[in-house]
Design goal:
Elements: H1 2-10, H2 14-23, E1 28-34, E2 41-47, H3 49-62, H4 81-86, E3 93-100, H5 108-117, H6 124-134, H7 153-160, H8 162-174, E4 178-182, E5 185-190, H9 199-210, E6 215-216, E7 222-225, E8 230-232, E9 235-237, E10 243-244, H10 247-262, H11 267-283, H12 286-295, H13 297-306
Antiparallel strand pairs: 1-2, 3-5, 3-6, 3-7, 4-5, 8-9, 9-10
Length: about 300
């Protein structure tokens, strides 16, 4: 099924696809990037040009047969962090958790086990090819894992989490709790006091039942309420039930615009400022109205001009 589809789509002989898949776990460029708000780094394994092309072909095919739960907000076309945060904007109490080493915890055996639970069975040859084309071999690891950097990894990770997403959603609905997942970030919110405290232990148990091998990062379990600053995937929840980019980003944007009135921004600085303004406008549309009224549309136009070169 998989081999035949790739052969017909890519105009390659089936034995060439099999041969390529056997070496694919080693066809990655590996590098480190700093984690957000941390001194630690994240390992990125970027597939070769040829492997990436085949993986994109697989995404088109597999996305038609691998279900993704509606509570999963990451990696979906037309949906982003704003949509994820909006689900929790009207609640009073918030619980945020995340998974430890999320992508590297997903193995071929976990993928095929979840597929089988959905009635999706791959023959031995297709399993062999999918194992090679979807998973990466880190030097220090004994087996293959999902890589951060492959175009197939978002779909596979969302699919693997489907059973967990469904079961925790069912439990949350009964308890009037809102649940969403954005990749490895999971968020729960409610208007009922104290009902979130029992969730961490329940989540740990449910992970063992549905996606064994994926674990919660207990150090990042955060309970908060309207009495404190609340953030979901980087978006601030206001006490009025709205969304905001937060005071710090607003001050940064204002100071950069103010600086541009007296100092000529480089094209890179202007590009960064426009990116911040675009993000702010997406999350909080009225913010653009306020800064335009304060600084004038002319200065914003000047900043756009500077992005083409200083």
């Amino acid at each position: 099924m998989i081999i035949e589809h790739l052969s017909d789509t890519l105009f390659l002989a089936e034995h060439d696809i099999v041969r390529f898949s056997l070496t694919s776990p080693h066809r990655y460029k590996v590098y480190e990037i700093p984690k957000r708000n941390s001194k630690k780094t994240r390992t990125i394994a970027h597939p070769s040009k040829e492997l990436k092309f085949i993986q994109r072909t697989l995404v088109e095919y597999l996305s038609k047969i691998l279900p993704v739960h509606e509570t999963a907000f990451a990696y979906k076309k037309g949906i982003g962090i704003k949509d994820n945060a909006k689900q929790h904007s009207k609640s009073k109490y918030l619980l945020k958790m995340d998974f430890k080493d999320f992508f590297p915890s997903i193995t071929p055996s976990l993928f095929f086990s979840v597929a089988k639970s959905h009635g999706i069975e791959f023959n031995k040859n297709d399993q062999m090819v999918l194992t090679g084309l979807l998973f990466w071999k880190p030097r220090e690891a004994d087996g293959l894992v999902l890589s951060i950097g492959a175009p197939t990894s978002p779909l596979i990770s969302n699919f693997v989490m489907y059973n967990f997403d469904q079961k925790i959603t069912d439990e949350c609905i009964n308890k009037k709790i809102t649940y969403t997942r954005y990749a490895d970030d999971i968020t729960f919110s409610t208007r009922i006091k104290n009902c979130l405290f029992e969730l961490p232990d329940r989540i740990t148990a449910l992970l063992i039942d549905t996606v064994e091998g994926i674990k919660v990062n207990r150090d990042k379990t955060i309970f908060t309420s309207r009495a404190h600053n609340r953030h979901v995937t980087g978006v601030t929840l206001t006490n009025e039930g709205g969304l905001s980019i937060g005071r710090e980003k607003k001050r940064l944007i204002s100071s950069m615009i103010h600086k541009s009135k007296f100092t000529k921004l480089s094209s890179e600085e202007a590009s960064n400022l426009l990116g911040l303004i675009s993000y702010a406008t997406h999350i909080e549309p009225e913010f653009l109205v306020r800064i335009t009224k304060k600084y004038g549309s002319e200065i914003l136009q000047e900043i756009k001009v500077r992005t083409v070169g200083s």
